[in-house]
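Internal QA ticket QA-208
Title: Verify multi-chain structure generation after dependency bump
Assignee: T.L.

Test input:
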Amino acid sequence: MPQKNIAANKDKTIRRILDGATKVFAEAGYSGASVDEIAKAAKVNKATIYYHVGDKEALYVRVLHEVIGQTAAGIATRMNSSMTPSQKLATYVSGIAETVGNYPPLPPVMMRAVESGGQILSPEVAADLMMIFGILLEILEQGAKEGVFVKANPFIIYLMIIGAVAFHRNVEANWDQKPELAMLFKQMDPEFYTKLEGSLSSSVAAEVTRLLLRALEK
Amino acid sequence: MPQKNIAANKDKTIRRILDGATKVFAEAGYSGASVDEIAKAAKVNKATIYYHVGDKEALYVRVLHEVIGQTAAGIATRMNSSMTPSQKLATYVSGIAETVGNYPPLPPVMMRAVESGGQILSPEVAADLMMIFGILLEILEQGAKEGVFVKANPFIIYLMIIGAVAFHRNVEANWDQKPELAMLFKQMDPEFYTKLEGSLSSSVAAEVTRLLLRALEK
Amino acid sequence: MPQKNIAANKDKTIRRILDGATKVFAEAGYSGASVDEIAKAAKVNKATIYYHVGDKEALYVRVLHEVIGQTAAGIATRMNSSMTPSQKLATYVSGIAETVGNYPPLPPVMMRAVESGGQILSPEVAADLMMIFGILLEILEQGAKEGVFVKANPFIIYLMIIGAVAFHRNVEANWDQKPELAMLFKQMDPEFYTKLEGSLSSSVAAEVTRLLLRALEK
Amino acid sequence: MPQKNIAANKDKTIRRILDGATKVFAEAGYSGASVDEIAKAAKVNKATIYYHVGDKEALYVRVLHEVIGQTAAGIATRMNSSMTPSQKLATYVSGIAETVGNYPPLPPVMMRAVESGGQILSPEVAADLMMIFGILLEILEQGAKEGVFVKANPFIIYLMIIGAVAFHRNVEANWDQKPELAMLFKQMDPEFYTKLEGSLSSSVAAEVTRLLLRALEK
DNA sequence: AATGAATGAGTTTTCATTCAT
DNA sequence: CATGAATGAAAACTCATTCAT
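Actual output:
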């Protein structure tokens, strides 16, 4: 069955393209990434990208969809309807942290997306984000209805979680790989450096959950 | 005083350049911004930018230093040693929110700053960022020492603040400018849309402060 | 054979580029030549030059290699092992004169090559130049061994040949293209002018050969 | 007398400009040299060059005139009417070599001038060159008239002398200062290298004179 | 399905020159 | 006399995209 092989090859090619693009977009952002670089990272001819995926913007949207969609799916899977709102919140936060841990490109991609003003957003990506937010919304509403949570702006809580988890992971990853910066801080203010390093080593999910529960629980 | 006039003109020119660059970098990010566009925004000949400031990167660093430095200084100024830690935290959050309002790229820059290996960052900018985080550090330490705050990871709190403020500002900006997106949400889930819109319209600084104080205060 | 056609087209394009570049570099020198002009001369899009050859310096090196390499090869080919040293010297000089006629910047390049620290020069070009000097070296050594030539400093003879050919070619070229200069000489010193013009019209190669043979032959 | 001081200052400024320009033109050629670089080398404001000397071309012409004019004057001084043609020729060659030795910029400047096609030549420079050539012309004519020299194309002899002397000096000077190239040759062909180095160390003037007298004397 | 070639329209950067002071 | 500021024009180089094969 040669058709199947061709199809499989095609899929592999697209996979390589998306992986390469994810990597390059994560490192350089949308405008900073060049199609040439992506093609090189994907070990694919530049024209192949246009053939299979489309232009640079289409590629970006597809990468965003994949990255954010995976996160959304991961969280949804973990949630269990028999949990209390507090338990759900803890699951939610650690779910995000875990997905992010398993899928490192998310933070930089999201960061870059924020940086570029979120100008490129497809309906699919919007739906992904809605889904992630929607889960939190339900948790908070349930908590409020049951009288265990105070009322709070869900979107801001959402942003606090995403911000802390995503960027913490990012800083953490880079702290070890780029010693120049750590050195710079060390030289400028050794005491500060020690505190920063201490902050980095702790578990984000646990700390974020703890703080949020303190903030929300009556 | 002819010399003085020349000097004054020079300063005005540099001011125009920095203002134009700040605006354009804010809208488009580093790679998205073009020197041509900056020159146009500054109403200055492109070569004048190179004459007074240097190349694109030097210009970016200078803008960053100015913006982040002013943020740092602004927050420091607002802070009053006679305030309670809680008051200081409120001042801190609203100080950041205000600056971010004036200069949207600040948040991603602040987050990436710690992460990017300082490739584009000058020591001056690093010092500015250290100062901003350092202020929060002191507030939390003071609060802990005085027994009014529980112990908490300062870096995570920092990220929660920056994350919430940064993302919020971004979404807000896109919400108004891209009605398609709002429409899209409305069609997909009208109820969700109403809630989201409600979340967006409230003040981030106030809500973030309220939540953090609930989380931190004993 | 579709692939073959593409390859052939590619070769033709590169040929056009190298020919255009050779022409423009010859007329204007390295810094005087612009890539735009070369693209125009080659009837190729500027970007095509970068695609196929690389940047200006790579293009220059390639042109040099081609021109000097061909000179070296040309001289070597003309040389016949059955010739006497005197015949070989005559062949050598006329071989250089001919190449210089086709590519004026050759002489200064050949002279500077030994001098410039090889900044622009590739190892290939250095090898080419070594070969050209090496041929002369062998001729002189053979002549000395056979007892037909007196001993002489080969490098100085090399410089005399190159110097005479190079300058002559240059003056000649300017003589025809810039009639003002000729007029100027005529006005300043008519007799001198007549002599100079007489000197210019004769064949350099023949005269240089004649003089060198008188100097070298026992 | 303040006027005198001002005038003296002016002269010093012009001197600095010409020295800087000579240096930069010698290193980079006409198109390779930038007015900025010249101003820097001369420790003078760029506009001062335009004020005192004029545009880039005028500056180049002035440098050429100075450099070549000095050489011309140096040779003329050494010549003595009571000498035999052979003695005069020896004096001529060593005079050129000596002047060049005392005034190093000549060879690179002439070389660059050749490279750029001698497109920029003023009447003054032409007169200088005429003067240098004129002296040789007289020597050769006298020799021919007296029956001691064979007839020969004076211009080509002129070029052989200039070529050998000027470029030898140049190669010599750079051989010591740029060891990379010497190393390159050494690696490529050790034997060749030894011969080349031997060639470089001998006296040009003596060898050129010896060869030319062998070529010219009946 | 996949690619090398080619390009138009940009990008960043430099440069010779002028001018007000 | 001397200079810092400013600029139009052009330089080198890049990039997203298309197309023939």
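Spot checks passed. Chain C is about 80% helix and 0% strand.
Status: verified.
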